[in-house]
Design a protein that fits this description.
Layout lengths: L3 E5 L4 H17 L2 E9 L1 H4 L1 H10 L4 H29 L4 E8 L1 H8 L5 E5 L14 H9 L4 E4 L9 E4 L4 H17 L3 E6 L5 H13 L4 E6 L4 H12 L4 E4 L5 H7 L2 H8 L4 E4 L3
Parallel strand pairs: 1-2, 1-4, 2-3, 4-5, 6-7, 6-9, 7-8, 9-10
Antiparallel strand pairs: 5-10
């Protein structure tokens, strides 16, 4: 499971943490790792370059575009080479991909033949973006057909983990993945269901699935709490090493308008978050 791993890198410290976590993950699953650096085409087509050329009045702006692209390409190669060296230090072989395009779209296109995308929380451009996460990470989470793991720590550790369950299709995919992880890692899966009113059939379907697959688990139903708060409180209580959840819950409109539980968990959690989507 998750043996073909795609790691977008941008040269930031958080990106490096994501890479180091991915290296440990790759070792653990005996998988293969691919590094991806994307040159942001928006930096080459934006009004800034046109403004520079019109002010100078000497060189056509297209020449500046070519020169800047060459510089960004060289920088991208350096980033990939540094990341490759990090892999080699840990005796992990890797592939390198350098592309030019819209960053999130290119990541999604390249991810089609991979099992998982691992991203360090808050990359280089996050300070220019709105919301809790960088715009690129948000776009990847919302559109990816592959599981996406967001981490702010470099060390991969096996241990008890949280499965946030609400009965939605993406939560059922998270349940399936959590079952496999609990088997592979031989650790306890803590199923967390947060509800303002009792809906035992929802948590019971998860319990039945886990029992059938004979994996160690504990179930927790939490009332009088927001989903994100309930999930995060339980993660702290059990010292969770990972939170697994659907990228979106039951009410997509509520998440768009009032703030996403998914984003709240990613932003606040001190442990990595694995987000699942339906392909």
């Amino acid at each position: 499971m998750f043996r073909r791993i795609l790691v977008p890198v941008d040269g930031s410290e958080q990106s490096l943490k994501g890479l180091r976590y991915a290296i440990h993950w790759t070792k653990n699953v005996k998988g293969g790792l691919t590094l991806l650096h994307v040159i942001d085409i928006k930096l080459l087509e934006g009004p800034l370059l046109r403004d520079i050329s019109s002010i100078l009045g000497v060189t056509p702006w297209t020449n500046y575009q070519n020169q800047i692209h060459a510089l960004l390409e060289e920088r991208g190669k350096q980033i990939l080479n540094l990341c490759e060296t990090e892999c080699q230090k840990n005796e992990i072989s890797c592939e390198k991909i350098l592309k030019t395009g819209i960053i999130s779209r290119t990541i999604l296109e390249e991810s089609e033949l991979y099992d998982i995308i691992i991203i360090g929380k808050s990359g280089e451009h996050s300070r220019w973006s709105e919301g809790f996460l960088g715009g690129t990470t948000q776009a990847v989470i919302r559109r990816s057909k592959r599981p996406v793991l967001i981490t702010n720590q470099a060390e991969f550790r096996r241990g008890p983990f949280i499965l946030a369950y609400d009965g939605s299709p993406t939560a059922k995919e998270a349940l399936r993945i959590s079952t496999e992880l609990a088997k592979i890692w031989d650790v306890t899966c803590h199923v967390v269901y947060v509800a303002n009113k009792p809906e035992e059939e929802i948590i019971n379907e998860a319990i039945k699935y886990l029992k059938t697959n004979e994996v160690p688990f504990l179930s927790h139903t939490i009332h009088e709490s927001s989903p994100s708060t309930g999930i995060l409180d339980m993660a702290r209580k059990i010292s969770a090493e990972l939170i697994v959840m659907g990228a979106f819950g039951k009410n997509r409109v509520h998440e768009w308008l009032l703030g996403s539980n998914t984003h709240s968990v990613i932003h606040t959690s001190t442990c990595p978050t694995l987000l699942t989507r339906l392909g």
